Amino acid sequence: MGELLRVEGVNVYYGSIHAIKDVSFHVDEGEIVTMIGANGAGKTTTMHAISGLLKIASGTISYDGKMISRIEPHKIVSLGLAQCPEGRRVFSGLTVHENLEMGAYSRKDGKDAIQDDFDLVFDLLPRLKERRNQSAGTLSGGEQQMLAIGRALMCKPKMLLLDEPSMGLSPLLVKEIFHIIEDVNKKSGVTVLLVEQNAKMALNIADRGYVLETGNIIMEGKASELADNPEVKRAYLGAK
Amino acid sequence: MQFLSYLARGISLGSVYALIALGYTMVYGIAKMLNFAHGDVIMVGGYVVFFTFCKGGIHPVLAIIIAMGACTLLGITIERVAYRPLRGASSLSVLITAIGVSYFLQNGAMLLWKSDPKSFTSVVKLKPLVLFGGQLQISAESIVTILVSVVIMIVLIWFVQYTKPGHAMQAVSEDRGAAQLMGINVNGIISMTFAIGSALAAVAGALLLSSYPTLIPTTGAMPGIKAFVAAVFGGIGSIPGAFLGGILLGIIENLSKAYISTQLSDAVVFLVLIVVLLVKPTGLLGRKTTVKV
Questions:
Q1: What are the structural domains, with CATH classification, of chain A?
Q2: A54 secondary structure, DSSP code
Q3: By the 8 A CB rule, do B179 and B19 touch?
Q4: B256 and which of A12, B65, B211, B260 could share a cystine (Cβ 3.0–4.6 Å)?
Q5: What angle do CA A185, A79, A159 make, to 5 degrees?
């Protein structure tokens, strides 16, 4: 299994605020890697930098052997690196089906391949199939999160960035969503970088993890080791 | 009878405002900016039709198609050169740039084509519609203008609601960042929007000048502002809203010309806008949007 994503010495500023500081990490093909950290640690900033929505001040980001730190966001998607953004951000005026279509908007591999992925997504997320002609704004939070994941899968990614998929969902739904993420990884073979505040669930399904604190990576390691680390336990897993 | 004749003229003028307002409202919806140079694109379209049809004598439909092509090119160029470098800049900078582009086009036209008024010949060669045994006469220009606007609006709504590029426009309008993350080329969609709006402006120019045949470099300025008012009136960002706003504005303007005062008609138009904004700030068909932080 080769290396798929490498972030090397990346710095991002919002005006004078140094949001992420010299951050380096990598994700190997086939892995689920999680990045945990509190609110404002720089997790979403990191995700936006990878997807090209934010300009990085210095450092490099390479994906699948190509430098992507200076490419436009839509071209990064067409390289097979998709993101399911924080807060779901489904297109509420469009139907479920149309939202999924938007995920496949710039694909050039033909109608049949796209139809196959529709089947795949509906197979993975049957609830979306039931609601395919309903406008996305009328879905529940959990269904919107499923739609956001399905929409990102319609980009036919080799690697999926997931930003806080558990946000605002009930514990039962969180379980379901994490189950779906495992399926995406194991059944469809999509490499996953998962950003989460719900460290317990994230470390549970991940292979490796990084801990981000105020823009710095302060710890890294196997997910199981991180879950046992007393410091991680105290700060992120709620142990006394 | 008199009233019906004023009304018909009002609807016809309103249809032109509607066509221009469609461009305003689409660009606002997608690029989140007010393109104050939009009115001057009408003027350029008018000159192209003037030189190809009125002077050159080619078929009016062909002349309008050429004008649409020229304006599409102009619209895309304006967006590429003046607005795209300001993506992410404050909306005030973009607004001032748009006003600058407007002056640039007006003065460019003055330089190229001089400021003496050109007299436009109507692109419509049909007889007026005579009703009630000659008591009511509606010009063919009015009828063609109304029909063309209605058809264009229906096509536009179909395009936005039922085609994939239309859906992408809706997606960009709703959440530009999420659209980019789905692999949608946002700059491409914005270019397309400018292209459509500018092509419609060319049609509006030809129709406007067929009814009001004086062409000077500032011809587009006032209709441009009125169409902007129409777009806000109807709810900026909404396509049916722009259409409704345009038609209502044309009717109000013409009826106040007829029954209140020719000089005060513009004042009445703007008064109506102020009242509408006081009562319903989002415009007639505008949706209330909450900005997420």
A1: 3-91+161-236 (3.40.50.300)
A2: S
A3: no
A4: B260
A5: 15
Contact B183 A74 (CB under 8 A): yes
Structurally, chain B folds into a number of domains equal to 1
Cα–Cα distance, A118 to A114 (Å, whole number): 6
* Residue B45, in any domain of the structure: yes
Residues of chain B with pLDDT > 70, as a percent, come to 98
Q: Does B267 fall in a domain?
A: no
Q: What does the pLDDT look like over A168-221, one tens digit per residue? A: 899 999 999 999 999 999 988 999 999 998 999 999 999 999 999 999 999 999
pTM: 0.90
Burial of B291 (0-12, 13-18, 19+ CB in 10 A): exposed
Q: Determine the distance in angstroms separating the CA of B180 from the nearest CA of chain A, rounded to an integer.
A: 5
From chain A, pick out residues whose CB is under 8 angstroms from the CB of B178: 85, 89-91
Instruction: Quick: pLDDT tens for A119-151.
Output: 999 999 999 999 999 999 999 999 999 999 999
- From the CA of B19, how many Å to the nearest CA of chain A? 24
B81 in any annotated domain: yes
Residue B248 lies in a domain: no
- Say if the Cβ atoms of B180 and A73 lie within 8 Å: yes
Q: Which residue segment(s) compose the domain that B122 sits in?
A: 2-220
β-strand A58-63 against A3-14: which pairing, if any? antiparallel
